[in-house]
Specification:
2 domains; 86 residues; single chain
Length: 86
């Protein structure tokens, strides 16, 4: 115990300091002050929503025409026979 500390509080403080020093920083990087709710859980915008909006934006802006296989796909015999596949 340090000078001036009495009883259990000194031991609890020492254990807390020891625990903080032994845990690597990466183990506590994704947590908030509450151990029940990690930062990865976002109650407002789920990653599925972000991914869906990204896919919709890519489809609306016809990115496949420029960077993908859309031109090749449109020229295939199957798509010429069934235009709804385009």
């Amino acid at each position: 115990m340090l000078a001036g500390e009495t009883g259990r509080s000194g031991g609890a403080r020492a254990r807390a300091c020891t625990r903080a020093r032994t845990q690597p920083p990466a183990a506590t990087a994704g947590t908030t002050t509450s151990r029940r709710h990690p930062v990865e859980t976002n109650p407002f915008v789920d990653l599925h929503v972000i991914y869906a909006l990204t896919i919709i934006a890519l489809a609306v802006t016809l990115v496949g025409e420029r960077y993908g296989l859309a031109r090749w796909w449109a020229r295939t015999a199957l798509v010429r026979a069934l235009p709804w596949l385009r």
